Amino acid sequence: MNIRIVARRLLFFVLVVWAASTIVFFIPRLSPRNAIRERFGELARTGGFSPADVEKLIASMQQQFGLDKPLLEQYWQYLGNILRMDFGYSLSRYPMTVTDVIAQSLPWTIGLLLVTTVISFVLGTILGAVAAWPKAPGWLRSTATPFILLTGVPPVIMGILLLFFIGFRLKWLPLGGAYSVGIVPTWSWSFFIDLMEHQILPALSLILGSVGGWVLSMRGMGITIQGEDYVNFAEHKGLTGRRIFRDYYLRNALLPQVTGLALALGTVVTSAVVVEGLFGLPGIGTALNLAIRANDFPVIYGIVLFITIAIALLMTLLEFVYPLLDPRIRAN
Amino acid sequence: MTLTSASTNPVAPNVAIVQPSRLTLTLRYLRRNKGLAIGIAIILALALFTIIGLLVIDPKKAYPLSAALKQPPSLKYPFGTDFFGRDLLAAMVVGMWQTAFIGLLAGGIGTAVGVVLGFLAAYFGGWVDGTIRTICQILTPIPVLLIQVVVAGSLDKRDVTIVTMAMIVAMLAWMGPTLVIRAQVLTMKERQFVAVAKLSGVSDLGIIFKEILPNLLPFIAAAFVGQVFGAVFASFYLAVLGLGPLREPLLGNIIWAAQSQGAFFNGWWWWPLEPAFAMILILGALALVNMGLDELANPRVRRTE
Asked: Are the CB atoms for B261 and B81 separated by under 8 Å?
């Protein structure tokens, strides 16, 4: 991996972030809606301000947010702000900044996403590899089938079903929230268990539907690889089945899976957003949900942009992982 | 053993090889490609439900204050009614129709744009190809659903209708088909029949429409089903987030409304569960058809007799 490839990848990352920022900047400005006017219009209706005062307030807010300047100037300033990860102020939770809102909810989302993605990726890859491996025991090969059947089910619907059958009918697990009402967060064992109990259903709704996808791609890859000459050669050399499975078969099938992981990141994050909203976990998804309900535009745009940048960054990082997995890429 | 006797006896008259009719062949293929068959069967069943429903049921019943409130499923209301007084059977029929409408419209637009751009890129190459490919590659990593959230969120609530929903969904979904069609045209372009056509003086348009396009139909069909799946999913996603046309009984909207009213907490279990199951059927069937068509389009994995 030489410096030119690294530079090209980084340039691509910058281009993606620029494109996303530009879309998020211009789309709202093409629309006739005015976030500040709507916000203060609401206030005026409920708070009894006189219309003239409201107009003055709106004008001063426009000035503060820089909305009275020419569009191009706003655009440059906006790009500069993005570079500093400054997404402006939240309208509904002023004086909090959008960055504060994101920082507050981010740990929850990262925790949920990390655990569910790792579990479904590892489980799906192993099950898929085994399903395509002719020497694996039959019961083990068929374990993957139920997951394949669940592949088309969107996580939100999975969440609704789990919520109803496991939460309401069987009453095995709590229905939502991050921890039980009335419990004070402490560093204790019982609080930790309570916290985990609340994470099981959201995690399951994200995992159950996504394992099948990994199984299918891995199985397809596995079947292709079994016909390859080097696997035949390894067999004729008399290597043990286990060694062939690990070094000749799994390792070669893994690279497309990692590429798939990079491509799936967007879907994974967007599904987490809506599942969090469904279960009321205090993550980015709930923040987005609340912002949509409150017409809090800076928060909506900030979160969307933040997620996009994070995904582009992760994809770029994953590209740098390929050479570690595949010596052929390292050599070039 | 008629076959051996026919081959050993070269003078055997009229051993006509009966070519089975197209329909028989299709049905036989469907028997081998079970996923495709099941998917098509489910879609036909859902279409039948929707069409009969639209003929029998008064669509007004799908809108608020047209029925008794919060009734569990019964003989009078087979699917129950919701908090706002919608007959959920009617709501499902209308919602299913609207979902199909969004899916077909947005899927059609996305596929059409993809096919045109893919053709332009692959056939003309050079800077056209470079530009189209670069734009696709830059847009692909951006989570389209979230950009659609921005678009839908920026619109005035009154402007969000079924048609604008379809437009929002189609706007950023053409990159996939563009890249697929481009790759296929690139391989197709190098085939001999295209070279022959070119040497015999067929025009660019003639080659595109008469030589390449017919061979691409399976890929276009697969891309179209994929696009419909994406469009149904995206519109459902936006609606569940409360960004859909709120008055319409779109399946995602029903779930959003049920969730906002705390349907489970109040014991109105049928309200969110019905659209959820309907959505599973729709998306599952589309996924099966999509996989089946991929197999049909890709002769390497196609199951033969």
From this structure: no
